[in-house]
Amino acid sequence: MGHRLLAEAVTAGRLGLLVTSPRVAPGLLSAAAWSAVSGADRLLARADDEPIVEALADAGVAVEVVGDLPPATLARLLVEAAGTASVVWLGSADADPGLSDAVASEVSRLESPPDVELVVGSWDVQGGRLLDVVAAMDRLRSPGGCPWDAEQTHASLAPYLVEETHEVLEAIDAGDPRALAEELGDVLLQVVFHARVAEDAPEGDAFDVDTVAGLLVEKLVRRHPHVFADGEASTPGEVEQEWERIKALEKAGTGDAYAQDLLHGIPPTLPPGLAADKVLARMRRRDLVAEPTALAELDRARAALQDAEARMRAAVAGVAGGARPPA
Question: For the chain, is the Cβ count within 10 Å smaller at the N or the C terminus?
Fold first, then answer.
């Protein structure tokens, strides 16, 4: 059975199946959905604690509750009711698995079945699935969730953030979009995980994922005045210069440390190669040049570091390759 999108009010001999996004507030229905709901003879739902039912109750709209029926039984009830009235089924939060097929089977056995139409109440907005990530992480950390997740701290999770970041880099080098999407999801998990851990911190130290997102948005807006305000940067080079200027203003509270020290704010745990790249980038944005002897020493140190890393990887491979059960 193919569903038609509803373009007009549901009338007698029609069954409307209302579907909504669980990531959108249940009362935010499309115009077509409100028309269908307000014009129907009967509104049916599984339970009175379904979000859409509660939203309609707040709006003074009466809904008949039929209980948790098997798909086949529910389909027959809906189709029979739609034979003499305009009926709208208010989709359940779990999307009523099996109901669509059961309705199709039910109408196929009738000589004059009611029209069955899909009433789209709301659509997901981009980024809506992020709410699912937050909800899943909250369940894992809450009582009755996962004991391993519940005992993690910022410190215990730190190695995973480093590992997942390098797996993203590996996926980028491999040119595998599917792997990249999956690995980025693992990095996102670390961000949401840390934010959820922070919710359990003592008052004054606690924050949540909305705090993280809010601070990020503020920074993006503040550092892109050419997009969000009246800034005039129009080339990548000008954007970099403006970014450096704005960041210097943000760091004004540290005195002249940021302006005078090219190493200021670079974490000591950052891999030396990346730290070198960051210092050289700061020099470029500030129109600074290095002493030739210092640059030569940096090149020699980079080569030595690459050799040491190669020996380390070979040693790790030797340990892994020779591993065996204890005698």
Answer: C
